[in-house]
């Protein structure tokens, strides 16, 4: 499977190192208890996060392949679904970045739920746009690649939601620091100000 991939993107490297990661985790499982966790370190939760992250990486790699292919879809159809797809891409990117930072810094992923909610709203907008654009007469062979790409994007959002749930469970078991969301755009007289709470 990996012979077909000729370049070494971070996603391909992550996917190809699965056995190495699993063997290292198995050794870590038997490591002598030390630090604040002692013998209660949630290794199984880390493994779940790794499995879900690899699944998401597979979907991202597939989407990348679809986007690199030249498709001749009708420009009006592409224009009809462009805005929801851009919103979904942006929001799922924010979710994955937030979750990565959460794991690295051992901080509870406070804003990922907001971005996932925005992703779901964009999926609903996409469904509405697809229903409206299906009324028009398009050649089905021209729009299938675009529909396939959007369905993969929706699968990436589902994976990000699963990763978020797994990291939330991990953060509870590993006692990640819960900073919470800063209060954004609090009215401060005539102009709006930002209040950031630092613990």
Task: Compose a concise summary of this entry.
This protein is mostly helical. It has helices at 10-16, 18-29, 43-68, 75-105, 112-134, 140-173, and strands at 186-188, 191-193. It has one domain (2-176).
Fill in the keyword field for this structure.
199 residues, mainly alpha, two-stranded antiparallel ribbon, 6 helices, disordered N terminus, ion channel, ALMT, Aluminum-activated malate transporter
Spatial extent as radius of gyration: 21 Å
User: Mean of residue pLDDT?
Assistant: 76
How many domains in all?
1
Helix content, binned percent: 55-70%
**Number of helices in the DSSP assignment:** 6
Major sheet attributes: 2 strands, antiparallel
State the distance separating the first and last CA atoms: 47 Å
Q: Unreliable runs, pLDDT <50, ≥5 residues?
A: 1-8, 183-189
Estimate the global geometry from the Cα principal axes.
Answer: elongated
How are the strands of the biggest sheet laid out side by side?
A: 1-2
- Kindly name the structural category: mainly alpha
Order of helices and strands: HHHHHHEE
Strand content: under 5%
Beta-strand segment tally: 2
């Amino acid at each position: 499977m990996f012979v077909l991939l000729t370049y070494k993107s971070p996603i391909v490297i992550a996917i190809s190192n699965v056995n190495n990661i699993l063997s290292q985790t198995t050794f870590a499982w038997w490591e002598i208890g030390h630090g604040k966790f002692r013998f209660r370190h949630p290794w199984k939760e880390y493994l779940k996060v790794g499995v879900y992250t690899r699944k998401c990486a597979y979907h991202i790699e597939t989407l990348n392949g679809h986007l690199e292919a030249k498709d001749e879809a009708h420009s009006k159809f592409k224009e009809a679904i462009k805005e929801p797809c851009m919103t979904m891409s942006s929001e799922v990117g924010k979710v994955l970045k937030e979750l990565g930072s959460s794991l690295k810094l051992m901080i509870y992923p406070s804003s990922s739920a907001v971005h996932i909610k925005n992703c779901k709203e964009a999926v609903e907008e996409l469904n509405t746009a697809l229903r409206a654009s299906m009324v028009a007469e398009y050649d089905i062979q021209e729009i299938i690649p675009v529909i396939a790409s959007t369905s993969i994007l929706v699968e990436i959002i589902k994976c990000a939601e699963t990763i978020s749930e797994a990291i939330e469970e991990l953060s509870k078991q590993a006692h990640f620091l819960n900073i919470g969301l800063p209060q954004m755009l609090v009215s401060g007289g005539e102009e709006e100000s930002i209040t950031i709470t630092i613990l």
